[in-house]
């Protein structure tokens, strides 16, 4: 679900003045400035004011805000539960009841101009596949994108993200590498760990050396990309029913 012109709904309390847009000047007072009543795109206050407007509307309609994640809103009705997650002007929601979903759509459309995107299959770089027995989340498209970005499309794949035969540690005598390039590689991999816990340890280990990366550290990062080349389709599977146990090592 997407809110059209979301930031324009925020009401600002501060005094903000703008010049008259070229071609739309007041003929009587062409040199005067205008005081804003509502937020505009580009204002520092705009995202916050939009969030305040939206959260107030939801809470007025029976929603409760999450204690830890304050962009998560919940609403209970009898035994059913409705969850609403907000990311700026994009909204995803799900419920144990179709009626609650319809009720939420009506609540939003009563105040904002909305466009419904249908069943979610992509959100913030995450691919979402919904099946009868569960939900699968992965980032295969994102992996292909970063492989292309850093020219790793034609590298040979490898079975593990980390070489256990060689311990990664500070390499004082090693050849320095470009710090900006190294950090860019690490940043791209960190975003990927949202759906790939199998690379989490290797990425965090390589991230320790961003301040003074050496050739040995860069080779370790490249190994992670080689691993991803052959394992791009892996992701997280959340089963609908049955015992779901989380194992960590």
UniProtKB/TrEMBL annotation:
<protein>
    <recommendedName>
        <fullName>Reverse transcriptase Ty1/copia-type domain-containing protein</fullName>
    </recommendedName>
</protein>
<dbReference type="Pfam" id="PF07727">
    <property type="entry name" value="RVT_2"/>
</dbReference>
<feature type="domain" description="Reverse transcriptase Ty1/copia-type">
    <location>
        <begin position="1"/>
        <end position="162"/>
    </location>
</feature>
<dbReference type="InterPro" id="IPR013103">
    <property type="entry name" value="RVT_2"/>
</dbReference>
<dbReference type="InterPro" id="IPR043502">
    <property type="entry name" value="DNA/RNA_pol_sf"/>
</dbReference>
